[in-house]
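Allow me, if you will, to draw on your knowledge of protein folds for a short while. I have a record of one protein: its chain in single-letter code and its fold written as discrete structure tokens. Kindly check, if you would, that the fold set down in the tokens agrees with what the sequence suggests. Thank you for your consideration; the sequence and its tokens are set out here:
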Amino acid sequence: QLQLVESGGGLVQPGGSLRLSCAASGFTLDYYAIAWFRQAPGKEREGVSCISSSGGSTNYADSLKGRFTISRDNAKNTVYLQVNSLKPEDTAVYYCAALLACDLPGPYDYWGQGTQVTVSS
């Protein structure tokens, strides 16, 4: 089965950190850029970050720069999103998706099922 699987979410206190993972199953991520999105309850999905297939290029939503770091390990067929200094407003379901290049609007060939991040004291 060809799919992306996110993991690493959970309940964390404000100021805490998490490392989210996006692993590919049934295909290789080598040729794909990977984007992270998030969707909070009652809000639209927003783009968080994207990393090129080689890992040489990354981008972030302006409001998240400095707190979030995207990386990839193609040998492990996995992309990571390190999220630091978490705030309650970071609470959302985080999704990863595969596309050909970060500067394209789509299409997204694969989506994960999401991992819940809850920031609360």
The first strand starts at residue 3 and ends at 7. The chain is about 0% helix and 50% strand. The chain has a mean pLDDT of 96.
